[in-house]
Amino acid sequence: MGRDPAVRCHPQRRAIVGIRACQGAVAATTRKVHRVFSLILAAAVKDDRLVRNPAAGASLPRVEVKERMYLSHREIHELADACGPYRLVVLFLAYTGVRFGEMAALRVGKLDLLRRRAEGAVLAFL
Q1: H or E, element range at 125
Q2: Residue among 81, 103, 84, 83 nearest 93 (CA)
Q3: Could you count the other beta carbons within 10 Å of the beta carbon of residue 37?
Q4: In angstroms, how far is CA 123 from the centroid of its own chain?
Q5: For the chain, does the N or the C end have fewer beta carbons within 10 angstroms?
Q6: Nearest 5°: phi and psi at 125?
Q7: pTM for the model
């Protein structure tokens, strides 16, 4: 972006170029980038720096919701067995639905194996 003189001189154009750069991206990413730029430009309109928001009313790609696929119990156990020493990690993640970072944040004192509970800042279930 830095070599194009038209982009260097106008911040608004940088925003539009950024949206155009997302044209090859996934629809959800393009929509998120557009939302950020639109909010920035809306603030510029509110501050009387722009007459109107050039991102308003832009046609955006539709996000296609795909059917989610889940592993069966047998497939989960086959995957866990293939992971060797990480078998328990795979089983914990698969059956609790927590993300890896949430699991990594757990502490031994927050696990109650007798009551089958794991408590953390984000989770309290099992």
Answers
A1: strand 124-125
A2: 103
A3: 21
A4: 19
A5: N
A6: -160, -170
A7: 0.49
User: What phi and psi, each to the nearest 5 degrees, are found at residue 111?
Assistant: -100, 130
pLDDT tens readout for residues 52-104: 888 888 777 788 888 988 999 999 999 999 999 999 999 999 998 888 888 88
CA distance 117 to 126: 5
The answer to whether 37 and 15 are in contact (CB under 8 A) is: yes
DSSP state of 86: G
Please give the structure tokens belonging to residue 10.
Answer: 């106008």
pLDDT at 4: 43
- Give yes or no for residue 118 having a pLDDT over 80: no
Sign of the Cα torsion 98, 101, 104, 107 reads negative
Two structure tokens written together for 105: 């944040």
Orientation angle between helical segments 11-21 and 27-46, nearest 10 degrees: 170
